[in-house]
Amino acid sequence: MMKRDEAGTSEDCVLDVRLWGKENGLPRPYPVICHLLDTGAVFQELWDAVLSDETKEAVGGALGLSVVEARTVVSFWAGLHDIGKITPPFQAQVPNCYRPVRDDPAYVSAPGAEDEKGFRHEIASHWALYQLFEEAGYPGGERLLHKSVSHQVAQLLGGHHGLFGEVLKAKEAARAGDYNPGLGKHGWAGQRRVHFEEVRRAMGAFAVPRGGLPAGLAVVVSGLVVVADWLASQTSTIEQRIPAPGWSGTAAEVNAHWHAAVKAAPELVRAARLGRARFSAVEFGEMFPFAPNSLQRDLADHLPALVGDRGPGLVLVTAPTGDGKTEAALFAASLLGRAAGARGVYFALPTMGTADAMLPRVEAFAAAALSGERALMLLHSMAWLSTPRSADKAAMPDAPAGERGVSTDAGTAVEADAWLWGPRRGLLAPLGVGTIDQALSAVLPLRYNALRLFGLSDKVFVVDEAHAYGPWMHQLLLRLLEWLGAMRAPVVLLSATLTGRSAGSLVDAYRRGAGFREPSKVVPRYPGWLFASGVSGMVSAARGTASNRARTLKVTRRPVEWDTPDPADAPVREGGRRAALREVLAPLAAQGGTALVCCTTVAEAQQTYRDLCAAFPELAARSGGVRLLHSRYPADVRAAITAQCEYAYGKRSKSVAVRPGSVLVATQVVEQSLDFDFDLVVSDLAPLAQLLQRAGRGRRHQRGPLGRPRWAAAEDEPELVVLDPLATPDGSVPRSWGTVYDAGLLVRTSQIMDRYAPGGIAVPGDVQRLVDEVYEEEFVDRLEGSAREELARLDEERLAGEAAERHLATWTSVCAPADVKGDLSKLSARDAGVTEDLLTTRLGADTGRVLCLYVQADGTATLDPEGRVLTPAGGRHGLRAAELADVARRVAPVPGRWLRGAEPGVTVPETWGTHPWLRDLVLLRMSPLEDGSWAGTHGLYTVSISEVGLEAQ
């Protein structure tokens, strides 16, 4: 056929099947045309199997096409994604394939064109497709190309490797070959054109869109293109479809390949487990094996009518810990998901431990309430260690940090593992439980962030502990809610201690994304819930509900001198913290029962544990009498301690007898989503929200009159003892606390405790008022003299710090969907330094990771102090999957300052490989000490490990 080349001349151009698209690991090169058709066919099947009817109609409406036409046209786009492989730099990567093409006089290129290595094929697709779509009659011709449909589609397809290129300049785009030698000249442009036309002809994609896609739908199509490309690029798939020798790419042969690709696509998609879960259950009783409590019943009675009248949207649930928020959220998710036609759920939590604990609850819900495809993924940086079959995953060593375990029903487990375990694929599963950072990565300008957005776009997004994030992560959550609002994805937010201001910002961010910019003036009720429609923008009045666990929190505020650093054998000072702990825990030691002692820092928790063991030797001598839980243990040790605590203090410990005396000394790790029940909670001073979270672990479950000791018999009057160093005459924030908490919030909390402790705190009645009061601007006005001046100064520092964190979030995050305005490169544009590490560590935190190697008497280094597990040697291909898992289970987080001044020999051996999870891991060679602990010197510090975890001097 006659085609006009880029330079404006004409030439006879016939499809050239020597141009390869896939080659690595194949018996012979796979022609580009075949891969383009394969990808188009898989996309077409994904459109049918993955997208909701609502999304299909929205895409068709935006393009000005029928749903049938949109399906064909957008699948055609997907097929064109790799047309940039028809360029000298790409073809030259396989010299034996490139040589005959290079020597063919039909192909002309500038000298050195094949050496333009930086001109990657996806970039070439962006440049080449703009002109090809223009020639095909797509709307364009704009001087500002971001307004051109031709350019938008070209830019979208150029982003199939996770980053979108900048908007082209009209002058350069019109003479693309002159500005980009890597495109080639005569022959190359013609082949791109004939491949474009052959794919279009075979697929029947002759309809021309009249409009472009808004940002949310562009993300959906982009994500689906990436998935289609990945599925079509599997070696096992291509091997079955390689044309026989002599295949020349005639129209009949191209047609036959297309029809075969269409026939094969359904099984590819089915095996990948990318289908849709269906929200089958309607009634609460169908989903859970118990009757609803007051909060759950109110949702079940009133939310269906709101959703039925106003369409799906966002539900905010505010209630105390232990009031059944998880089941309320899953019920709301089922209702919203059914109304929105969503394909699944992602349940986001603040920590890996809370995600691990939530997984079986979501799994049980899915088994009872959902049908269809129910592949359930666990997503966080250590998820592969939480899955029984993780050591057998052949793909695991190649997966980046932040990836994933899989859990499905028995009928789908093997098949789900086969594909969903791959890098960056976890959020594509219909169901997921994981850490919040897995979702927030979608709004950072990281490679494949649009794929993460696509993974969330058609799910119900549930956020637990919405109050638990600082200003920076809160700001990122606001941006994510904007995107979810724009994509009409339902959202459920849960919180035990959320200020009214924060609640309003979350609701308004979602509404803003959905197109409703006026503030909603949200006033939450506690306990209670509210609904915001993503369709009409309506926000219901918050409904207050009764609590099945209304209680009066008895607060004892103990002024204490801060003597925590004193050795366990030092004299106990009157009025000190050590004396206070001995006094409040004495009834437990004598009569039995359980207590939580929550400390501010790991070092103070370790010292408190030692002190209590010395103070109560009989308690400490009994197994489980005194326990210690914090983050500075090797992962396997911490997991074992957590499991022991769940057995001792969780629902499984429920009995009619008083539990034997037991004290858990812990840090903030116990605040969130761990279902522990203690007879007494003792806490160092902390901001009010954290104190209330900890208090929620007090007498959490009904144990009956015989289930608690006499000193804790009143189940509706749990006791919180606050050890307050600010309450003494010369009190101040202990220096050892550093910047763990804002000093101004501690001052405010201390004064609120002073005011309300004598009469107790009504839960839930007083909670919302007190949480809001801590942040009131007028709070400082009630003080006088130097106290007022000092709090004003501390407030200024806090507000400045929060503003800095919000600025960081604005700097690091992608723009709002309304600001994309046809330019998808705004999702990829970033400054240096924006990495996923920003999400996995708290702002300003200085952290590192260590692996202790225990040097035995014969000089052998082992992974365990007993000397049973030898340190793996690795090899040419790095650690095996099981070896890497064994290493990962024994890694512990430590303050970064411990690791400065690294010495030779402490980094990961080259023979261990380059798995991303090993990056920045430090090996510590430890020698045994007489007391049974192990220690080693690293830089300026001597690091030791014992029953209390890691310490440094």
Describe, in plain words, how this protein is organized in 3D:
The protein has 953 residues and is of the alpha/beta class. A nine-stranded mixed beta sheet has the order 10-9-11-7-12-13-6-14-15, sandwiched between helices. Helix 1 (32-50) runs antiparallel to helix 3. It is globular. The chain starts with a strand and ends with a strand. 52% of the residues are buried. The model is unreliable at 1-11, 388-417 and 840-844 (pLDDT under 50).
Which secondary structure elements does this structure contain, and how are they paired or packed?
Layout lengths: L1 E3 L5 E3 L7 E3 L7 E2 H19 L2 H11 L3 H13 L8 H4 L3 H8 L18 H15 L13 H10 L11 H5 L1 H4 L8 H16 L11 H18 L2 H5 L11 H22 L4 E3 L4 H4 L6 H17 L2 E6 L6 H16 L3 E6 L2 H18 E3 L3 E4 L25 E3 L5 H8 L10 E5 H5 L8 H9 L1 E5 L7 H16 L4 E5 L4 H14 L14 E6 L9 E2 L6 E9 L17 H15 L2 E5 L3 H14 L1 H5 L4 E4 L5 H15 L12 E5 L13 E5 L3 H8 L23 E6 L18 H14 L4 E3 L3 H8 L10 H28 L24 H4 L6 E9 L5 E2 L18 H8 L2 E5 L25 E8 L5 E5 L2 E6 L2 E4 L1
Helix pairs in contact: 1-3, 1-10, 1-11, 1-13, 2-3, 3-11, 6-7, 11-20, 15-16, 21-22, 21-30, 28-30
Low-confidence stretches: 1-11, 388-417, 840-844
Rg from Cα:
31 Å
Strand order of the largest sheet: 10-9-11-7-12-13-6-14-15
Helical content, roughly? 25-40%
Report on the biggest sheet: 9 strands, mixed
Report the sheet-strand fraction: 5-15%
- Overall pLDDT level: 89
Shape, please? globular
- How widely separated are the two ends? 79 Å
Instruction: Work out the helix count.
Output: 32
Helix vs. strand class: alpha/beta
DSSP E strands, number:
29
